[in-house]
Amino acid sequence: MTTSKNPETLALHAGWRADPTTGSVAVPIHQTTSFQFRDTEHAGNLFALKELGNIYTRIMNPTVDVLEQRLAAIEGGVAGLGLSSGQSASMFSIMNIARAGDNFVCSTDIYGGTWNLFKNTMRDMGVEARFVDPADPEAFRAATDDKTRAYYAETLPNPKLEVFPIAEVAAIGRELGVPLIVDNTAAPLLCRPLDHGAAIVMYSTTKYIGGHGTSIGGMLIDGGNFDWEAHADRFPLLNEPDPSYHGAVWTEAVKPLGPIAYILKARVTLLRDVGAAMSPQNAFQFIQGLETLPLRMERHCENAIKVTDYLQAHDKVERVIFPGQMEGVARERADKYLNGGYGGLAGIVLKGGDDAGRKFIDSLEMLYHVANIGDARSLAIHPGSTTHSQLDADELLQAGVVPGYVRLSIGIEHVDDIIADIDQALAKA
What we know:
By secondary structure, the protein is of the alpha/beta class. It is 38% helix and 13% strand.
């Protein structure tokens, strides 16, 4: 197995060499529900967590395991957990350490679906999301109390695209005993949040990691760098006996296995009971996507710079939203946290407002009008009427969505063709 720390190499080699029986270099698709136990002792040990291994694909699967190991290696984490979607990863990230009566502090700069999940669905479960503007990291401290279980943010927020102050908020959290969870979906390989103090990283693998719009999935990655025991009162779910495992205390139970209390609990309680498992077929698709991710990200970033340079000079564009075009603190944060490029997402505010945004979308011929990002193909959407339509007017402004806002996900086509399609659509907007 490679000892490299370079993501280009890890994306191809981490977690897998070859099948020991057949010699297969490609990771096999273990399309099975169940796994044969050696004997009753082996079965008992697995169920009692005396040893780790495959029981049932709802909890663990060898194909998914390779993807988990590979992404954990790329992020510098200790373990991963593959899930059925990015939304399930967002929910699991919080519910693994929070229960009714608890709260977490969340950046206002997040994807609309996540906002709705946190504000409404999780509220109905008794867990409060406290939204604060990340422009001032101290807002996280001000919103923290004894029931605060986590901070949550996106590295490159969709659609606001102002890079989150990871180190600043993580430092506040470490001081107070609160872990920072970072959704790194829009910035794979460009940023490693764990290097800046984050405790947990999550992904919608549906996006750049898959890269081809074929599969839905999510991933949680445990940094292994947060001392859950030092803040036992804040994390009873990890430090008090779990009745579903005969009183196991997760921070104690995992000590022979390493600093994986968070991710192991998520696997053997939440994933066991909720069942939001990643399918082996989808895991295989994500592994294929991951292998070319370093090359694709280079092209995404390169094309996005050229497209936004063109848009800056267009007379129908009021404003371009792109980390590489920002100034002041926003640009400083982009340069601090994004290495190798500013990502493939860009926003434009059209002077004609909502009507112009809709006309632009309807006039595109090559770019796809879909609710997705990170595809090899270029995509576009009008968030105010789609992905963020469930937000009220004030929430839309907090998320960076104004009437004429259009989000672009710049693909890997020839940049001249991308610009030509955008140009003809702008002429009709």
